[in-house]
Amino acid sequence: xxxxxxxxxxxxxxxxxxxxxxxxxxxxxxxxxxxxxxxxxxxxxxxxxxxxxxxxxxxxxxxxxxxxxxxxxxxxxxxxxxxxxxxxxxxxxxxxxxxxxxxxxxxxxxxxxxxxxxxxxxxxxxxxxxxxxxxxxxxxxxxxxxxxxxxxxxxxxxxxxxxxxxxxxxxxxxxxxxxxxxxxxxxxxxxxxxxxxxxxxxxxxxxxxxxxxxxxxxxxxxxxxxxxxxxxxxxxxxxxxxxxxxxxxxxxxxxxxx
Length: 258
What we know:
The chain is 38% helix and 19% strand. The chain is globular, with a radius of gyration of 21 Å. The strands form 2 sheets. A 7-stranded mixed sheet has the order 1-2-3-5-6-8-9, with helices on both faces. A two-stranded antiparallel sheet has the order 4-7. By secondary structure, it is an alpha+beta fold.
């Protein structure tokens, strides 16, 4: 009990942090209100799904909580996309399947069911996407369901590591905000990433015609808004003075084009 209570790193509430977050989130709250998307988690997830789907040439996204994330009509039928996300700062990168059933496992054996594992740095910087399909994923999920039914696991949850998606299931990694070389160097810094060969990483343009960053239109429109100008002026003032030994940087990430 005492060890649990000693976990964490408690410190005083930083009023400037609270103030900066409130000012940054006000324009975002206007977008939530305009589109009627008040659930914060689903709002961010749907926006990220739109980015990933556009990059992978899927033109429809699911606006509900359950079901596949996106789909596209090809060859007279729909291809469906399951999207899993991971943070750059996570200890490991996995595609995790929660509450798996035999029916869901069977779907992943079909040739029109695809999977994407996206790795993000922060809320909006998409580093790379592992993408592909393999019927053996359905077999892996079904085996997990059998383990759960045998009461070997508490919950029917299965995870596939990024390295296994590439090395065992033939997925390709598509570099998004950096070059394939930069992504390869990043992967070499992780034990599981060292298994991934350089040849498994490609620039995103290999999937088709080159396209601009899907968030560019949102970024440009937001730059033109009164809320952005007001917040940018505030941020410029804040960046001119030091706070806790650091300076405030740009309002928006540098990887988005000007």
